[in-house]
Structure prediction request, 216 residues.
Amino acid sequence: MSVASDARFWDRSSRNYAKSAIADEDGYQRTLERTRSQLNSDDHVLELGCGTGTTALRLADAVRGYLATDFSPAMIAIAAEKHAAAPIPGLEFRTATVEALDADVGLFNAVLGFNYLHLVRDLPGTLRGIHDLLAANGLLISKTPCLGDMNPLIRLALLPTLRMIGKAPYAGTFGTKELSLCIALAGFEILAVENHAAKGDDKRPYIVARKASIGR
Prediction:
């Protein structure tokens, strides 16, 4: 499988994904509130892996500009439909990846990635790309499944089987410590690692990291 095949998987899944309920609504609300508290009204924000735009539509009114991207054209089409029904000034949806963003987008005060980093095939490269897109002291805010902290049967048996039959996209199997190290090595200072699950720990750490003053 490739990035292109991953995009096709999400294209096929987009309508069902848009209809699916949020599994942990209380935990999601906590994530939204915590993220909003990190943003300022003059900020320009980039969201990567925005899916069908649910989070973008809930956060975009807090900032000056909000560019929400996903590599699945079908996901972005649904997000655009939602936005057309309830427009928010300064919000734009675009089919793109970190690597595909042009210099004309400028620098961002914050880059958000929710349920995203475990889906990228080149984690170090993606993090370096995020670092380059951030203004001085800009924030990377992430909440993504750390499969390395979950039941080994999921990453060693279930996921490979589902991928083999085309029922799952690529997913990295790092744990929280490995993810935190990768973020630090990409030139970030980690400010917070939190658990936003309403009950227990769903192994999706909420991480806030700041672009280090001495970059690459």
Summary: The first strand starts at residue 44 and ends at 48. DSSP finds seven helices and seven strands in the chain. The mean pLDDT is 91. Residues 27 and 199 are 8 Å apart (CA to CA).
